[in-house]
Design brief:
Blueprint: E1 6-9, E2 12-15, E3 17-18, H1 20-37, E4 43-47, E5 53-57, E6 59-63, E7 67-73, E8 87-95, E9 100-104, E10 107-108, E11 110-111, H2 127-144, E12 149-155, H3 159-162, H4 168-171, E13 173-174, E14 176-177, E15 185-186, H5 191-207, E16 212-216, H6 219-228, E17 236-238, H7 243-253, E18 257-263, H8 264-267, H9 285-295, H10 300-308, H11 312-322, H12 325-344, E19 349-356, E20 360-364, H13 368-376
Parallel strand pairs: 9-12, 10-14, 16-17, 16-18, 18-19
Antiparallel strand pairs: 1-2, 3-15, 4-5, 6-7, 7-8, 8-12, 11-13, 19-20
Amino acid sequence: MKNSQIVWKNQKALKTGYTTGSCAAAAAKAATYMLLNREIISQISLMTPKGIMLYLDVEHIECRADSVSCAIRKESGDDPDVTNGVYVYAKVSRREQPGIQLDGGTGVGRVTKKGLEQTIGQAAINKVPRRMILEAVREQTESFGYQKGLSVVISIPEGISLAKKTFNPRLGIEGGISVLGTSGIVEPMSERALLDTIFLEMKMLRENGYQRCYVVPGNYGSDFLTDTLGFDGNKAVKCSNYIGETIDDAVRLGMKELLLIGHIGKVIKIAAGVMNTHSRQADCRMEVLAAHAAMAGIQTKAVQEIMEAVTTTDALDILHREGVVESVMESVMRRISFHLKNRSGDHLQVEAIMFSNEEGILGMTEHAGEVLERIAKGE
């Protein structure tokens, strides 16, 4: 039976999948059933929190006198998920003590820092998957009238290598990946998962005593922070294109100051009030540069050249030729400061540094240098 549905994203029909949490819960349910009923099964059903019933193939079954282990293969649909195709295992064992004991095995990370849903030392099995697993196992014990206890260990052997491709090391999760999912279903190109990760990164910093942090859209900003400016990248939150949401998270968490460090290709858009810098949302780079260049007094022909430029590097070359780079960058940074302040309100100070790979720092908001130093000192 088909487990995927069709959703529409950006005018395309895309298939849904199911989360590692659903796989873990289904594997645990199947292993419990086989342990208590002594019957091998090849498929198991699971109702997800989203209300979608899954029918999943049970694989890699190993039965012993007091334990059963089996696996469910992860299916991410059309979402570009690094865990697509991995096997999520559950080993369920009898124990004398009453209750269900849940833990993570090989490839499931361990929490090493405060700020996550689990305490330090616990397996990185998030709240909803944890509940799904326990409910699935409890359903089977009640069905068979089993009174003693069970031990459930979730393992994802490929998680050790996959962890390097995720945000987990930055979040303080070591030794593997997290068992995730809030709905049980993977929606293609889900923004929610990334926004949740951004929030968790900042929450982790806040709960470890930091009231200020750097914010970088991606690797360009991170590399510039560490390699060029010489500051600690561990105090940075990667926000991708979600500048506005990251500021909102900082206000919600009670942060005092943020310093945004980003490439001109993204940060320049903030000067027009654009807080989601993905090109699908808005691409006003040349409009911003052309408008500020016109205010600096260059001729109409040069303004038209900027409007027709393909990259910000090309546009900067024109500004250099016209001798207005400095004045344009000053007025651009003032507008960036205005829009950051408009988004952050009175309880959070947000400053910015804009750079290019070829020229280094192009502009800074008024108090960016002071905030840079305060973050570096851990104030």
